[in-house]
Amino acid sequence: MRIEFISTGDEVLSGQIVDTNAAWISQYFFHQGREFTRRYTVADDLESLIDIITETSLRADVVIINGGLGPTSDDLSAEAAAKAMGVPLILSQVWHDHLVVKYAKSNRTLSVSNEKQAWLPKGCEIVDNPVGTACGFSFQFNRARFYFTPGVPSEFKHMVTEQILPDIQQRFTPVTIPTLLKIKTFGISESALTERLAALSLPSSITLGFRVDFPTVEVKLLSTVEADLSRARALVNAELGELILYEGDGSFAAYLQNVMLEKGHTLSLAESCTGGLIASELIAVAGSSGYLDSSHVTYSNESKSRLVNVDKTTITQHGAVSMEVAAEMAEGAMLNAGVDFGIAVSGIAGPGGGSEDKPVGTVAFALASKTHTYSQLLFIPRRSRQGIRGVALYIALDMLRRELLGLDLSAEFGSIERRDYRIVDK
Amino acid sequence: MRIEFISTGDEVLSGQIVDTNAAWISQYFFHQGREFTRRYTVADDLESLIDIITETSLRADVVIINGGLGPTSDDLSAEAAAKAMGVPLILSQVWHDHLVVKYAKSNRTLSVSNEKQAWLPKGCEIVDNPVGTACGFSFQFNRARFYFTPGVPSEFKHMVTEQILPDIQQRFTPVTIPTLLKIKTFGISESALTERLAALSLPSSITLGFRVDFPTVEVKLLSTVEADLSRARALVNAELGELILYEGDGSFAAYLQNVMLEKGHTLSLAESCTGGLIASELIAVAGSSGYLDSSHVTYSNESKSRLVNVDKTTITQHGAVSMEVAAEMAEGAMLNAGVDFGIAVSGIAGPGGGSEDKPVGTVAFALASKTHTYSQLLFIPRRSRQGIRGVALYIALDMLRRELLGLDLSAEFGSIERRDYRIVDK
Q: What is the pLDDT of residue A329?
């Protein structure tokens, strides 16, 4: 079965807009066991649209077209569909009345340009759009079943999930919807993951996929056979062990929040090179006030002393980027805030500020608890300022995960070098 | 002239990878005065590739194909090109020798799978790839000039900018490269911008574009006529006034950093609902330590008192989300850090925590300086937790801009309601 997708619009074609609708529907269909054979991006002029509708009508079984259903003169999809099929546009009284009611609700009357959205190719079927004013529509033309959809992402997604995919399932041989298992990893590259998991001889029903969400990589296992999925999951778990952060959707911050709330622990941070990034990531999850007290973004040396009691002589002796300073920052954050854990990061994110001894990418981390303080000095090679900060964020959060789960805090993180580490028991 | 682009690969087609190469080259070509007529995304099986190469060879003048030049068995672009043209693959001694030298430099020998990258369709010309091992190549087939490019974004971009575009300029009628002017706005929606700028009667050589980078919108003016561009810039400036944050590339944080360093001012922050987001955005720019001392991420009420001296009775009387608390936070941050400005944000980002009096989206802001403290209570409607935090970030930074430029701090921000504001002179 050939399913094709057409993105329309000069703004998409000229790269002014990144085509997230195409990526979204491709992934959504893939996870529903349907795959596109081809995707197109075309300009929103009448000739281009008529060409592509005619071409795909002869080749595909299903064609989904996105965009060009709005009220402006650039919105030509309905007209192009009618011209391609050689039928007139006629006013859909149903959609016209629907629009009149919709506008009346917000005390507006229907303008001529908005009425345009109710003119559809003769003989087509309406695809309802409960969240917008653009009317979706569908028809058979030559070999293909066509679905016209609006460009607004929320309207598009609603129409695809609620109406178009169910309609395809009904019209064509149904497929079993596979189950998708997501496993989030950190500390291993996509290529290393590919190599290690390829050697596992996973059950043949499994489709193995990866999604890089820097600096993490998500392993995706897709199968219609539940037993195979369980077996694959066990094999992947055994192979990757502590490199796995967590399973399922949601962020690492959300995962950590659940564990922190479950255990009733509290946290305060002291951030230098990450500069609020860790706090911001944790606070992005609603309910984070249940365990996160504060973060001390101590960017200047003076603020390290003022806010988290770092001894000025420690900075003079070891430098601001050192295990000693990070340890004092973490302890200061924990003690001052009166919480269970303090986590601190101090590093050289670059591009300036590096030295031979401590090049750009050198980052000191510490985690203080009531029983011990762990600190480490790592070197994150070959990354931009934002890259170093992004990796440092995940290393800091992974230290908390390891502390909470009772794992060794001296984790190996792929290409990241551990220059030094220390555990001080209290 | 018809220029078409083909993205290859199952991972792109199934939405596992967002096709940033396609968006990048489309935008790059657009800014160079060339536009694509159509883009395709196809699977990396031999038949699909041969089909699309043949189809486009009959229709287009230039076809750029991306991906499938790697060493693995999925990489079929060269084979498909040869099959489509009916020529054999032959070993390029030049590229083979190049690979041998490249591998020798890192003490590796060329494997059979890597040697595959030197087998190219007979009669093609090499397109050099100084940053990778995949060999680009080019040939004429039917109507079209074909360029085959690697999927790795850095290699792809290098090849397009250094070789392919110059080659196209040479082979086809050259176009004048237009000048692009970017104007970043905040506080006005894309649709409102479109309406207001459409009414300006800009010179006809101007192409007007918009790029939403939430919560800002960039206005893009593109023209080959410098005088028209100046005139358009003046018209847009007169129309939008204070809604314009700055011009050119770079972030708002980088713009503010320049002004702060120029004026020799220093800053400390106190963040509650933004939770480190403002600090993180500022610290993303290298050199931010020149003016940013610290941020106090005071998520708990207790930390507001401990870190930035908020009076506990102020919180009891007015609530943590109030102009009074924000003003004390900003003053505490400024005084404790011993800097020129303190900026504070305290709000209800949701989804929980709202009340009838202070619904989700209510955010208090304050800016303290040595001469005055300005505070305001705003309501940011209809946004997710992340949306509210993102808008709050820009409002806070815009307050700093307005303070630095001597503008009125009570700005209007489109749909955002000002519930209250206060200026206290010292």
A: 98
